[in-house]
Amino acid sequence: MWVVPTYANPDGSVVTEDVARALVSVPAAAPDFRILWDNAYALHHLTDDEVRSADAISLAAEAGHPDRVILYASTSKITFAGAGVAFLASSSANVGWYKKHLSAQSIGPDKVNQLRHALFFGDADGVRAHMRKHRDIIAPKFDAVTSILAERLGGTGVASWTEPKGGYFVSLEVVPGTASRVVELAQAAGIALTPAGAPFPYGKDPEDKVLRLAPTLPPIEEVRVAMDGVATCVLLAAAEAAAQ
After folding, report:
1. pLDDT digit string, tens, across residues 183-212
2. S-S: 86 plus which of 31, 59, 64, 74, CB 3.0-4.6 Å?
3. Is the dihedral angle over the CA atoms 115, 122, 36, 44 positive or is it negative?
């Protein structure tokens, strides 16, 4: 089972400790049932309310299933995409199994890159301080997205959206059957959106209503212009659907 426990996209949802405890405790038919605890956004906060991820490994050990959880994360969304440092944590048995297989795949990690990260961050507090700088850059962009959606679409009944406390996405729900049309209209206006249905398996949204907005990259002024255009596209697509 694959779980993103903190700020999972597209909704920015968080696995509570009670849910984590239930997952690691539930009886399983397969003795090798594993939970892949993908903590990709553990430090990607957008507010001062910094969610702390549940300690799934300790909870699993307490529940009598010490091998159930395999946790991993990386600094690819913290330092450099494709050049970060990856982490894996689990029980001694799982780590031993992993190291045995890894030894046949690689002669060893990139120790220079590990040192580079260690010197840059210094310690765990250094990572947290760095991510607060990230927040200073991207949080205003998220605020721009939600404020423009509220201004343009609030009270219309044609859309709803999340206001995440962390992660990289805002989830926008439009009139069912129109998400693909919104993307098409936006593209014609020069606005690039992730494909409709991107958060779903195989990219297929059964209701064609969910759009995943990713405002982290463009400058904030471009975010504002783009979101104003997206709101217009949502309204136009809704009007087209109503006219059919």
Report:
1. 999 999 999 999 999 989 999 999 999 999
2. 74
3. negative
